[in-house]
Amino acid sequence: MNREIASACTVSLLALGGCALGTDPSCDICVTEAVVYGNATDTSGAPVVGASIEVLLRTAGCGATEAAVFGNTGVTDAAGAYRLNVGTPVAPADHCVAVRATPPAGADLTVAVDTVPALRFRYTGKAPFITDSARVDLVLSPP
Hints:
This protein has 1 helix and 8 strands, in the order αββββββββ. The chain has one helix at about 5-15; strands spanning about 30-40, 50-60, 70-75, 80-90, 95-100, 110-125, 135, 140. The model is unreliable at about 1-25 (pLDDT under 50).
C-alpha cells in the first residue's frame, strides 16, 4: 500500500470518524471494531479469577445458527474483570455479539452466556479509535 492511500485513509478517519460510509477497498488499515468488557462473578458476587472469556460476533443476528465469524478470547483478572477488542473486516453495521464465560479448571461453576443484540461496529483505522463498547457482566452459578 502506498503512503498516499494510507494518509488519505487516516485523514478521512480523523475527519469523519471512519474511512468511508461504506466499505473502502483502498484502505486496508481500516477494520470495524468494538470493545466488550465486564466482570465475571459467582452467585455471591465474588470475582471469578481466571475464567476464560470468549466474545463471538454473529453477523446474521443473535438467533442465527451460523457459526461465529469473528471474535476474541481472554481471561479474567484478579478482580474478575475482562476487556476485549473485537475487530472484523466487514463493513460498518450493528451486529449481535455473544459473550461466554467458562470457569477455570477445578471451579464448581457452570458456563455463563449473554448477548448484545446490536453492538455498533465502525471503522477504526488503528487503535485507539474504537467507536462503541458494551458492558457484559456474567454470573457463573453452581451446577
